[in-house]
Structure formats: C-alpha cells, structure tokens
Design goal:
Blueprint (H helix, E strand, L loop, with lengths): L5 E7 L1 H6 L11 E7 L3 E4 L10 H7 L2 E4 L7 E3 L4 E9 L14 H13 L5 E3 L23 E3 L4 E9 L3 E9 L4 H7 L7 H5 L9 H12 L1
Parallel strand pairs: 1-2, 3-4
Antiparallel strand pairs: 2-6, 3-5, 6-10, 7-8, 8-9, 9-10
Helix pairs in contact: 3-6
Amino acid sequence: MSLAWEIRHVRDDVAAFHGGDAWGGPQAVRTATFVSASHPVLALGSAQPDSDVDPAVVSALGVEVVRRRSGGGAVLLVPGEFVWLDLVIPAGDPLWSDDVARAMEWVGDLWVSALDGLGFGELSVHRGAMVTTDWSRQVCWSGLGTGEVVDAAGAKVVGVSQRRTRDAARFQSMAHLVWHPERVAALAAAPRPTAVALATAAAVVPADASALEAALAAALG
C-alpha cells in the first residue's frame, strides 16, 4: 500500500464533487483534494432537511444549495474565503480506525500542524463527545465534533465530517478565511439564529488560501 498522497485540485463544480462516488471502492488510494468554488454555495449535511434553509434569502443572495453525503449542518462556501481539504484513505491504511469518532482525530492533528507553521496560536483537537447547541443542527459551525479544531477561546477553526464504506473513508475538512455570521444566520429558516449568536462560533485563519494550502500539503508530507 502506498503511503504517498495524491494531491488534486478541483475547481467550480462543488455539487458534482460532493455527489461523486468513485472514491469509496476497493481500488481507493490516498488522495488529498483541495476544492474551490466559483460562486457562493450552501452545502447541507446528508440528513439535513431542505426546510432548514430560507429559499427567499437563498435566491436574494444568489447562493446555490447543494447536499454533501457526510453529516452535520449547513456550511456556506464563498469563493476565496475558505480552504476545503477533502481526504480519502483506504481501509487498512495506518491512519484508518474502526472507531468512527476517533477516526477523525488525525485530520484535526494535520490541520493543527499546518496552522502551527503559520503562527496561528494555541489550538487543540476536540477528542470528546459531540457538543451541540440550539443551532448546530442547522449551522455546522455552531456545534463541535470529534476531530474538529478549536482555538483558545473555544471557537471552531476547522470543521470535519466523514463518510465511510468498508473499503475507504472520506474526510471533508474546512477552515474559514472570512466568517459571515449575518449571512449564515439569514440563510437559515425561521426561527433562525441571530448574527450575534453565531459571531463567536468560528475563528478565521489569518492567512491567504494559497499559503494555507501550501502548509497543509507540507503537513501531509
């Protein structure tokens, strides 16, 4: 089994990338894919109902709504304002764990290593049970799961979600370079959170996308 990472870049078609199934078969190999978007996208979790979103606000803001096949709440992707790293490992890989929750911890460790090199400050990987809030079902960044990264104040820096087959595991991880609590709140259906309630949920990474992607690629090595 090769332990080298195949690094890829996917641009524009977020919906198609979320919907692809080619990653999870018996021929799965280690891949690390950086994904970007050409226009604003709201990615709903696999089990999240469409009714969690306000269609009038979606239309007014020109946001495309797509569905990912991993769990969690909605994530707003604005071009140039996030770094998304999608990771696939085959079953039997040294990073593989049969424990579904603990399986995501190495992803958080990877991000901490990369962010440490950028001088981010004190960070930690959440290794406990899922932490929910009044709005975490609707808004991903309002809750906290195993493997996700938080700063010293407890704000989420990196979100992580997972999908598995018996042949492979896929981890979708993301950090904000800019955080729009007012826009995220407005996109949620009523009763919705306030922008104030979401303002401290996320901590942004003080780096541009290319620098953060380079740091992550180096950490993978």
